[in-house]
Structure formats: structure tokens, C-alpha cells
Amino acid sequence: MTQESRELAVPQTTDLDLTAKGVTELASPDAITAFLAKLGYDTADRTSLSPEAVGLSEESASGIKRIELLSEDPEKFLRVVFAQPKSLTAKARNDLVRVDGDDFVAKDEQADVAPGTRCFIKSEVGARAIADLMGWYERQWSDSVDFKDNLIELLDASKFGTKEYTPYEVYTKALYEYFKEELGENSPGLGRSAVDLAEFQDDAVKKARRILARYDGVLIADSVGLGKTWIGKKLLEDYAYHRRQKAVVVCPASLREMWQKELATATIAAQVVGMEDLGRPATFLK
């Protein structure tokens, strides 16, 4: 029977009913060879190998009792080798694991087998996993398309390419990046409000609320006459009126009466204290 006819006689399979007892019986070269034959591998050319032939050093070879090639496919992609150390030590195991696959080729075969095709696969599962991975890679490669031109076009249209942007576009982009978290945002109302604001003042209140929620404090600064008092009154309304929290307004003595009137018109209960009073005993706080 030729090697080709032997290969066709038993098709390769990985679907076997293997029991726990069957696994424990795989303890000899003959048992492993019979198992490989069931998988469809050619096991007719079993060959004994010397430790030196597989690349073990003289020191490592002294610990090996027997090495035998049990099966090899025609392409020499898969080789199953049985190695029996004289004693199962960590050194003997590590020496066998470190052996390179190229060394599992008889000296008279090395001229005919390319080094890149010689592999030492330690299990059927590992061999199948590698074969499946190679098949998957080939399918992906065959389905791929050349995207070089599209990539160049995409890069040219980006900030890394040749497209030029006008100052207006740069300015608009900067504004968007700065305010993008606020776009389309509507702060939930706490109820009716007695403080009417202009649109730009209302925007300031929304931003102040976000800063307050994050930092428990906010500093409002703007030019004279743009409504800082009204913005502050709106925030006081949130806390002193709607949330019923205690509030204190600290201001120069010259502005104390103004703040008292503003708070009264919005029915906001807050104590107004002059800055000068802060240096005196805190008997004014109720």
C-alpha cells in the first residue's frame, strides 16, 4: 500500500468519543499510535530517534530513555513525537519543550525540507488550532480590498493633509470644542421665577449652575452694567427660595440697601451683611 493510498483509506477527523478511561490508556507509543490512526494519520513509518538527532545537548540526552516519531503528514507540517525521560523532572520536561522543530528532521532529510515548513506540534488540538487560524487568515486576506487611495483622500481632507481652513472655520471649531457640552442643553426649572433675565444672562446662570454642582462655588465676573447682580439674584432664588436653604449676601455697606430691595422684590429670604461687619464679632448672623 502506498503512502497516498494509506492517507485516503482513513479520512482525518477530530470528532471521537474519547472517555476518561481512553485518555488514561494513552500511556504508551502503541496506544498513542492507535489513537492517531483513528484520527486518520499515517502511522506506518514509525521511526526511533536519538536525543542528539532532535537537538538535545549531551547533558540533556543523558536523561532521555526513548524518542520515537509516531506520525508525520506528507507536508511535514505536523509531527507527533513520543519522548520518554528516564525520570520525570522539571529539567527533562523543559529540555524537551525547548527543542526547536527544525531539529526533528533526520540529517538526510534536511536538504529537501525548507526550514520554514518544519514545525514541532505537541498536540492534535494545537495543530488543528493553527490550521484553522491559517484558514481564517487566508479567507480574510482574499476578502480584503486595497484602501490606500481612500486613506490618502481621507488624510488629505483632515488637519494632517493638504486642505486649508479659513480663520472663520478655525474660530468656529474652537468655539464648538469649548461649548459642545452645553449645546442643546436646557437646565431644568425649579419652579416659577420672579427674576427675568436677558438671554446672555440666562446662559451665564446655566453655566454657573454647572460650576456650582461640580465645585460647590462659582465666581461671576463681567463688565459694569451687564447684570452680575441679577445673575447672583437668580442663583439665590434657586437656593434660598426654591430649596429653602439659608442664604447670606456679603457686600459693601453702600450696596446693602440695594441688595435688600432686590431680594425683597423677588421674595428671596436672605440676610444682607456689609463687608465691614465681617471684622466685628459675629453677633449679626442669626
Secondary structure elements and pairings:
Elements lengths: L2 H7 L10 H5 L4 H10 L8 E3 L8 H4 L2 E9 L6 E7 L4 H9 L25 H20 L4 H9 L10 H13 L19 H17 L12 H15 L5 E4 L4 H10 L5 E4 L12
Parallel strand pairs: 4-5
Antiparallel strand pairs: 1-2, 2-3
Helix pairs in contact: 9-10
Task: Summarize it.
The protein has helices spanning 3-9, 20-24, 29-38, 58-61, 90-98, 124-143, 148-156, 167-179, 199-215, 228-242, 256-265, and strands at 47-49, 64-72, 79-85, 248-251, 271-274. The chain has 286 residues and is mostly helical.
Task: Throw out a few tags for this protein.
286 residues; mainly alpha; 2 domains; 3-stranded antiparallel sheet; two-stranded parallel sheet; 5 strands; 9% strand; disordered N terminus
Structural features, described:
The chain has helices spanning 3-9, 20-24, 29-38, 58-61, 90-98, 124-143, 148-156, 167-179, 199-215, 228-242, 256-265; strands at residues 47-49, 64-72, 79-85, 248-251, 271-274. It is mainly alpha-helical and 286 residues long. The protein has two domains: 3-143, no CATH class; 195-279, no CATH class. A three-stranded antiparallel sheet has the order 1-2-3. It starts with a helix and ends in a 12-residue tail after the last strand. The model is unreliable at 1-10 and 100-125 (pLDDT under 50).
